[in-house]
Amino acid sequence: MRWINKLSKAELLELHKSVVYDDINGIDDLYVDREGGCINIDFNENWPYEDGTPSYIPTNYRYYDFDYEDCDTSGEPNNGAYRTWMAKRFGKEYINDMLCRILGVDMEALKELEREGNDD
């Protein structure tokens, strides 16, 4: 975990509302899982009753540096929006790190290519 653990609770709420589900009223539980490399979060999401009455229940997610998992509802993660939000928050260094990790590119080799490109 290099990036996700830098976010405050308020930022985690903003991220979740922007990317996953906007009708939440807070965080029920948050656990930093260093071994698993994620933040395990229960957001209180509105799962309304059939009559439309709100029913906020803890819904579990695992947030990693470059993606997230919807652990309770088996939804389809929107990792593109997630990565875009994180890139806007952290900038070029996050984007470089994400590309290197996802594509398996060595960061030092990428920096060397960048230096060579600046020599022109």
Topology, please?
Blueprint: H1 9-19, E1 24-33, E2 38-46, E3 56-63, E4 68-70, H2 79-90, H3 92-103, H4 107-118
Antiparallel strand pairs: 1-2, 2-3, 3-4
Question: How many individual helices?
Answer: 4
Average pLDDT level = 91
Q: What is the helical fraction, as a range of percent? A: 25-40%
* C-alpha-based Rg, rounded: 17 Å
Find the structural class using helix and strand composition: alpha+beta
Strand line-up in the sheet with most strands: 1-2-3-4
Low-confidence stretches: none
Report the sheet-strand fraction: 25-35%
Characterize the main sheet. 4 strands, antiparallel
The N- to C-terminal Cα distance equals: 36 Å
Task: List the keywords.
120 residues; alpha+beta; single chain; 4 strands
Please give a structural write-up.
With 120 residues, the chain is α+β, with helices and mostly antiparallel strands. It has one domain (4-118). It is 39% helix and 25% strand. It has a four-stranded antiparallel β-sheet with strand order 1-2-3-4, covered by helices on one side. The termini are far apart. The mean pLDDT is 91.
Compact overview of the structure:
By secondary structure, the chain is of the alpha+beta class. Helices cover 39% and strands 25% of the residues. α2 crosses α3.
